[in-house]
Design goal:
heterotrimer, A alpha/beta (392), B alpha/beta (412), C alpha/beta (144), B: 412 residues, Aconitase, domain 3, 3 domains, five-stranded parallel beta sheet, 14 strands, 14% strand, C: 144 residues, Glucose Oxidase, domain 1, eight-stranded mixed beta sheet, two-stranded antiparallel sheet, 4 helices
């Protein structure tokens, strides 16, 4: 990979240990994918760096350094409800590095809205797929340490999803069934991700509303059953005005159909079909939008969450604030629901039976809670379950 | 305009008086613009949240709509208003005026709006997608989503956006249609734009020249910041009522000049060079260097995170002049994060105030301000017109320096 | 028909160099390290791998699967797993997800991709595998 004089210097250690480490990492990373050069990134979205993820001598320098680009960060807990493992002192360390405490897996709902065609670096599989697909921004599926190496240098290797050709569709998914709510999009994503793997699926035939909530579920699921970093929805997402445009004039490598049967099958697969008595209802993976919280408030208004059921609603700190201003936080709390800003996994005591509207949660949670049963369904069905205590 | 059965029912009053009134407004607008039909929208964003612009008439109208059973059908967010929501006492806004403002807000909330109180709703959870039909008022925000995201909205008024939010539909005309989104004037940008205020200046200059047309900006770098385009859109809307531009390489509909103009030739070509840039800075300053200022305004449009971070960097450890109010405007939502990140404390330690539901362009001058410095051409326009102050326009850093020294044009 | 002791050589592209050997763990489906690998024990997790491989330790094994998927936390999880002393001997992927690339570069796990035959078909769990990632070769000795 070609390095500029300045990059070369950093590589040789003339700009300090951290930049040397970062440049060496990015060079290896780029060489693997035959990247021709490094390109500048505008911003980054990262997890808070943990000592486990780095060599200790690098970590020590890192937390005393300034990042090269404005950087937003993933969930940091919920200080209001004492659900956090990050002490205020530690948070201060990250802030001093230049990290904004955006504190959500869905920063695109609260101030992080990169422009079409801009180069950025983002982690969080559900977030980066949203930024790539819906905003038309360009990011790799970043991880540790590449995201930190990018944020430290302000650069990333130019290959894959940063290039025009890397954004070409490979798999055509003909959608031949009505998708009636966002959890159906979770099911669609879960189905297609398993086939697409790390390729770029193109959805054709999607009718009806596709907006923030649908994209959120679709992308998160695609990046759960698969490793999808970008998808196109024909006539909906910016790079896919037509099938032809989505495949950049080429033919799809593979074509599959998503019909009524596939929809039902994907939904069935995401439930473990255990007891109907539910003790946890967890919504908000990715974090709930204000529209979704308004829906919940409408459904629980004047009612009570069933005895023995915990209702967790996960959202962005900013959106919780909005919900508070609107009085819907109060409505939900009076009904016995909790609005929190964490990722529930690891914070809840072991549940027996969980109901969720998220394919991502239903997929990952069984590994963390091996004895727990899961039900997957729409937000409305989950809230009804919270009110009655039973999945029906 | 064609109405389907359900639209007809609403128009006949079968879904209550509030819905009927809203439908009447939409039908009247649709007929004026020869709209073929109504189309579904997924959100609306409302201006005239400020008591200064709604007045008592606006409040009565909203309260009547509540009694008549109206309620928003789609996500509806709100513009900033005339006071600072949680701090009006501390900042000495007159109580009688505050009460009116709060009553106006209360009415919007009862109708089911989200109290975002910002002109950047796309940053706080109401972010439409490419091609999505919405109905937005607030000239800077609607121009931003048309231009940068490729969502589709006309330049709605407070009333039309309100009615569209209640019905969940809008008349299908204007910028909802492909053919009207075609670029018509080529703007060749021949100078390097370094500051957000440069984009604000360019927008103001070009807006005056392209009223009623769709400008296509060429030679804007791919890595331009979102907030720079936001500043550009705001200024274009103020001087030229421009609801949409193309920025080559950024606007999804304009990957190339050919696409932006749909293979036609531009009707007109305009060059924007250093000379025009400097002229605009001069034009927007009503006074000479050395004049004392008593108000400095940042955050028009409401500042993004990264702009608050930059403001914090410039103000870190500094004190602003005792005779100057430095008001930095942003949204409450951005504020909650900037507070956790520590930017707000740094900015306020200098004596500046971070305001998060307010906009001086829709407020009243209760504080005797005479001379304002700002980094926004939009704010110079309304500062002079609404607050009645003399205005000075410069970069963010120049404005902060003026706030520190108390005088325009003095380096700190 | 393969026989016990039979040797098969596959050629591919080494992306992280090194020579290593060990018994194979073969997954027919893609893997997310998040929830698929417990970095504190080095074991494979429920819901991510076939039931018979749940709890299997990857330490010293040659891990063979088509490609990585899922959570971007994956790179850090593999790194932490290796830091805790549970490094696999080598990784063989047919395609390389960037999240896996992160993990193998940072943990210096010899890795080969893009083999001339599908490694998930040719290699079976338990086979003895020699990986030469410097030269891009994989030598498989069948155990049954």
């Amino acid at each position: 990979m070609y390095l500029t004089n300045e990059e070369e210097k950093a590589y040789k250690g003339e700009s300090g240990l951290l930049k040397e480490w970062a440049m060496k990492f990015l060079t290896k990373f780029g060489d693997i994918y035959s990247a021709e050069k490094l390109i500048k990134i505008d911003t980054a979205f990262t997890f808070l760096p943990t000592p486990q993820a780095f060599e200790s001598e690098i970590y020590e320098v890192l937390i005393k350094s300034k990042l090269a680009v404005p950087t937003h960060c993933h969930i940091t807990g919920d200080p209001e409800r004492n659900l956090t493992r990050v002490t205020p002192d530690r948070l201060k360390t990250f802030v001093d590095m230049g990290i904004s405490l955006t504190s959500t897996c869905a920063p695109y709902m609260c101030g992080y809205c990169p422009t079409n065609g801009s180069h950025i670096s983002s982690v969080e599989s559900s977030c980066l797929v949203y930024l790539n697909s819906v905003f038309g921004a360009r990011t790799h599926r970043e991880s540790f340490p590449s995201i930190i190496a990018s944020a430290v240098t302000g650069k990333t290797p130019y290959f894959g999803l940063h290039t025009d050709e890397g954004r070409k569709g490979n798999l055509l998914v003909n959608v031949e069934t009505e998708l009636s709510n966002p959890s159906d999009y979770d099911a669609l994503g879960y189905f297609a991700g398993g086939i697409a793997g790390i390729d770029v699926p193109v959805f054709k035939g999607v009718t009806g509303r596709v907006g923030l909530e649908e994209f959120k579920g679709l992308g998160a699921a695609l990046a759960t059953s698969g490793g999808v970093g970008l998808y196109h929805v024909v006539g909906v997402t910016p790079e896919a005005p037509s099938v032809k445009a989505a495949f950049q004039g080429d033919k799809p490598e593979e074509t599959v159909t998503f019909g009524k049967d596939e929809l039902e099958e994907a939904k069935e697969h995401l439930s473990t079909h255990g007891p109907e008595e539910v003790d946890y209802v967890i919504l908000g993976c990715p974090h709930l939008s204000i529209t979704e919280l308004m829906q919940v408030a409408d459904l629980v208004k004047g009612k009570k969450v069933h005895e023995g059921v915990s209702l967790w609603l996960l959202t962005v700190p900013m959106i919780r604030w909005q919900a508070e201003q609107m009085g819907i936080r109060d409505t939900i709390q009076k009904a016995g629901g909790n609005i929190t800003t964490v990722c529930w996994s690891g914070y809840t005591p072991t549940p027996k039976v969980v109901a969720t509207d998220s394919a991502k949660e239903a997929h990952y949670a069984p590994a963390h809670y091996p004895k727990t049963d899961f039900w997957f369904g729409s937000l409305e069905k989950c809230i009804n379950t919270a009110l009655t205590g039973r999945w029906r | 305009m064609y109405l389907n059965k359900e639209d007809e029912k609403i128009l006949r009053g079968e879904q209550g008086l509030g819905n009927q009134k809203a439908m009447e407004v939409l039908v009247a607008i649709g007929d004026i613009f020869d709209a073929e039909k109504l189309i579904k929208i997924s959100s609306s964003h409302l201006s005239s949240v400020a008591y200064e612009s709604s007045g008592d008439t606006g409040i009565s109208f909203l309260e009547r709509m509540i009694i008549d059973g109206a309620h928003f059908k789609v996500l509806t967010t709100l513009n900033p208003h005339s006071i600072e929501y949680d701090r009006w006492k501390e900042l000495a806004f007159p109580e009688a005026y505050v009460k009116k403002q709060l009553r106006n807000i209360e009415a919007y909330k009862k109708l089911g709006a989200v109290g975002t109180f910002t002109c950047t709703p796309f940053l706080v959870g109401n972010c439409p997608r490419y091609g999505e039909h919405v109905s937005w008022a607030e000239s800077s925000a609607l121009s931003y989503i048309n231009t940068v995201i490729g969502a589709r909205t006309n330049r709605e008024s407070a009333l039309s956006a309100l009615c569209a939010g209640i019905i969940g539909k809008t008349p299908y005309y204007g910028f909802h249609l492909n053919e009207n989104r075609k670029g018509t004037v080529l703007i060749d940008v021949k100078t390097v734009l370094k500051h957000s205020s440069d984009y604000s200046a360019m927008g103001y200059n070009i807006g005056k020249k392209v009223e009623g047309k769709v400008p296509v900006f060429n030679n804007i770098p791919q890595n331009v910041k979102g907030y720079d385009i936001n500043a550009l859109c705001a200024a274009l809307a103020v001087s030229g009522a421009v609801p949409m531009s193309h920025i080559i390489g950024i606007t999804p509909e304009a990957p190339t000049l050919e696409k932006a103009f749909r293979n036609d030739n531009p009707e007109e070509k305009i060059t924007f060079d250093r000379v025009e840039l400097e002229e605009t800075y001069e034009d927007r300053c009503m006074k000479e260097s050395g004049i004392e200022i008593d108000l400095a305004v940042l955050g028009c449009p409401h500042y993004w995170y990264d702009q608050l971070a930059e403001t914090a960097r410039l103000l870190n450890g500094k004190k602003i002049h005792k005779d100057v109010d430095l008001w930095v405007n942003t949204s409450s939502s951005i504020m909650t994060v900037a507070k956790r990140t520590g930017y707000i404390d740094i900015i306020e330690a200098s004596g500046a105030k971070v305001m998060c539901s307010y906009c001086p362009a829709v407020a009243r001058n209760f504080f005797g301000w005479k001379t304002m410095a700002t980094d926004s051409t939009k704010q110079t326009f309304y500062g002079h017109g609404v607050l009645g102050v003399d205005v000075l326009f410069g970069t963010t850093e120049q404005v902060i320096n003026a706030a520190i020294s108390g005088k325009w044009g003095v380096k700190v | 028909m393969t026989k016990k002791g039979m040797k098969i050589v596959l050629n591919g592209r080494g992306v992280v160099g090194g020579v290593a050997e060990g018994n194979a763990i073969v997954l027919k489906k893609s893997l997310s390290f998040w929830s698929g690998l417990n970095p504190q024990t080095g074991t494979l997790g429920r819901g991510q791998v076939p039931p018979e491989l749940v709890g299997e330790n990857i330490k010293g094994k040659v891990l063979v699967y088509p490609f990585g998927k899922g959570s971007t936390a994956g790179g850090a999880i593999l790194f932490w797993n290796c830091k805790n002393g549970f490094a696999p001997a080598a990784i063989i992927n047919q395609k390389l997800d960037t999240v896996v690339a992160n993990g193998v570069i940072a943990s210096k796990v010899p890795t080969i991709i893009e083999l001339d035959q599908d490694p998930c078909q040719v290699i079976e769990t338990g086979d003895f595998v020699k990986v030469d990632a410097d030269n891009g070769t994989v030598e498989v000795t069948k155990t049954e």
